[in-house]
Design brief:
Blueprint: H1 2-18, E1 29-32, E2 40-44, E3 49-51, E4 54-57, E5 62-70, E6 73-81, E7 86-91, E8 105-109, E9 138-147, E10 150-155, E11 158-164, E12 171-179, E13 182-191
Antiparallel strand pairs: 1-13, 2-5, 3-4, 4-13, 5-12, 6-9, 6-13, 7-8, 7-12, 9-10, 10-11
Length: 193
């Protein structure tokens, strides 16, 4: 009996020390399930089309902007791009009607960017990615965590950015189409209390 109490106390201490996972399955909210664009506003003239459980664009220019705003969260999504694609995930957008890389954080998707400083995996004007990962021609995963001033980006299971910045604290999300062929699916969010 004494042994099992000691083991139980040790187990509880380990849980407290390590913390419990934030990303518990029941706490995630699906923002895009591949069937419709409910909860998103179209900004610009990108030719967004639904198909195969995803949304794709290959001409025009623009964004899908979430109707809701978010403060602290973990965002999980999959994206597909061809080699010359230019896209990004914009978070904490200060102006939902004029989304850009100066009024929000842009987690970039742009393997062939002329200036490779803020290529795929980086946050434009803020943090270079390390290491560099190429994403063209396949489905990729992004996990983006914004908690207070801390911003963490994980691309295909590899952390590429861990930085701090206080400029933007809240706002909608935006999925960008800029060039090439771009697709998104399985967009989910977990709000952090």
């Amino acid at each position: 009996m004494r042994y099992s109490l000691t083991m139980g106390a040790t187990f509880l201490l380990a849980l407290v020390t390590l913390g419990t996972p934030v990303s518990v399955q029941g706490q995630w909210t699906t923002l895009f399930d591949g069937t419709n664009l409910d909860g998103w506003e179209v900004l610009g003239n990108a030719n967004w089309e639904l198909g195969d459980g995803a949304v794709f664009a290959d001409s025009g220019s623009g964004f899908l902007v979430s109707e809701e705003s978010y403060d602290d969260f973990e965002l999980s999504l999959e994206f597909w791009v061809d080699e010359p694609a230019n896209s990004g995930i914009f978070i904490r957008c200060a102006d939902a009607q004029s989304v850009n890389d100066r009024n929000s954080y842009e987690v970039n998707i742009y393997d062939t960017r002329a200036d490779q400083t803020y290529r795929t995996g980086g946050i434009v004007h803020l943090a270079e990615p390390g290491p560099w990962l190429n994403t063209g021609g396949k489905w990729n995963t992004y996990q983006i965590r914004a908690e207070g001033s801390r911003l963490v980006v994980t691309l295909n299971g590899v952390q590429t950015v861990d930085t701090r910045d206080d400029q933007f604290r809240s706002g909608p999300l935006a999925l960008q189409y800029g060039a090439g062929r771009v697709g998104f699916r399985n967009v989910r969010i977990h709000e952090i209390d």
